[in-house]
Write a structure and sequence with these properties.
419 residues; alpha/beta; binds zinc ion
Length: 419
């Protein structure tokens, strides 16, 4: 079972180390010891839907695109995010051709969160559920649908997730081809009914993009895509995951609880953050459009259409925890283990298992979070934390108590801070 326990975390050469090997086989000890002063160490957050932040918009083909993505990668570390999928809203082919070659899959480090590949939301989505996407760029599949998709995106090299509307003609072929290539297909911005959604899942789709938003509302005779959460037509051994913008604005807490109680193991927290995340209120760009930020609300300028979010991942995790009353490990899993399982990388990320990437650990002290990314060859021992989210169920500490614990004294991002 999974759960929190008081434990030391050992790290060497960028991997989480089984200390028994060190003690008994190598008779070794730690080169560096870090006093975590009671903070929670957990797998770093993985954000599979983030459009930008800190003034950077991933859907804008600028000359300094690379420095923009680096800036976001570096800034989100202090919100606990250690890897992410830069997300592009519906764009013309020329924009995909310009931007996608500049996105490089890479590991995280003190320089910034790792990049897992792009999430392309559109352009094969429903005009009726376009949300903040520019209508003139939305399209359907031509004959030879998969070739059409290839021509639109230019290349599949760095693509990790594609959000499409399964009711679009010829989408089955595309879903099968993408799945075959290990690219995650997500259903969203769609008016699909439940049987169309189930068919898409049978063809390989595994994800739902921002559940409840930009899809048909739940209806008891045809629950639409939302019905996938309790469908009995999901192939055996498969799990459908669903993204949730848990910022307290895009989804009412009661709806969040409905989704969580119906299908807790599928919940994946996403920020869906736009360029305005981390910026002051006012007007900012999202793709081809202008949006207005007012507190945690973001609208297409001059309208009341919600447009992405400006909440950071740690805020979303806290809101989820408060809205559902779930355990802290459940909240952490929704932002770490589940997205790792969705992408099939749970052997390396999303857990603190031995041999997982040490560069994906984050810490939490009271309401502050930070990422700890250690790539050096030294052997580290992180001691005296209050709780450690570990693979075994250990001491039965009250999970909630860690949130009340607060200290300003924690080691900084990337630095050793040896004690
Ligand atoms: Zn969307």
């Amino acid at each position: 079972a999974w759960g929190p326990r008081r434990e030391d975390l050992w790290v060497r050469e960028g991997k989480i180390l089984n200390p028994e090997k060190l003690f008994f086989d190598e008779k070794g000890s730690a080169d560096v010891q870090l006093d975590c002063k009671g903070c929670i160490l957990a797998p770093g957050f993985i954000d599979v839907q983030i459009n930008g932040g800190f003034g950077v918009d991933f859907s804008l083909a600028t000359d300094d695109f690379r420095s923009g993505i680096d800036l976001v990668g570096q800034k989100i570390l202090s919100h606990g995010v250690t890897s992410f999928c830069p997300t592009l809203v519906t764009s013309p082919p020329s924009v995909y051709h310009q931007i996608l070659p500049q996105i490089r899959i890479r590991n995280g480090g003190a320089h910034g969160a790792g990049i897992l590949g792009a999430h392309l939301e559109g352009p094969f989505i429903s005009k009726e559920k376009k949300g903040a996407h520019p209508e003139h760029c939305i399209r359907t599949f031509e004959e030879n649908a998969f070739q059409d998709l290839l021509a639109t995106y230019g290349s599949l090299d760095c693509i990790r997730i594609v959000t499409l509307a399964p009711e679009i003609k010829r989408s089955s072929e595309v879903i099968q081809e993408l799945t075959k290539r290990g690219i995650c297909v997500s259903l969203g911005h769609s008016v699909a009914n439940l049987s169309q959604a189930e068919e898409a899942v049978q063809h390989g789709a595994t994800f739902i993009t921002h559940l409840f938003n930009a899809m048909l509302p739940f209806h008891h005779r045809d629950p639409g895509i939302v019905g996938l959460l309790t469908s009995d037509k999901i192939p055996a051994g498969r799990r459908v995951f669903y993204g949730m913008i848990s910022d307290g604005i895009h989804t009412n807490p009661a709806a969040l609880r409905i989704a969580h109680r119906a299908h807790p193991k599928g919940m994946v927290l996403v920020t869906d953050a736009i360029a305005g995340m981390g910026l002051a209120p006012g007007r900012h760009t999202l793709g081809q459009q202008v949006v207005e930020i007012d507190g945690l609300n973001t609208y297409i300028a001059g309208t009341k259409t919600l447009s992405g979010s400006v909440a950071t991942m740690d805020t979303c995790v806290r809101h989820f925890l408060e809205a559902t009353g779930c355990s802290i490990e459940t909240a952490l899993e929704a932002a770490s283990l589940h997205p790792a399982q969705l992408l099939g990388i749970e052997d390396r990320k999303g857990t603190l298992n031995y041999d997982s990437d040490a560069g994906t650990v984050m810490g939490m002290v009271g309401r502050r979070v930070f990422a700890w990314l250690e790539q050096s060859r030294a052997c580290y021992k992180c001691r005296l934390h209050l709780l450690l989210y570990w693979r075994l169920w250990g001491a039965s500490l009250c999970p909630g108590s860690a949130l009340d614990f607060c200290s300003d004294d924690f080691f900084p991002v990337g630095a050793g801070g040896a004690s």
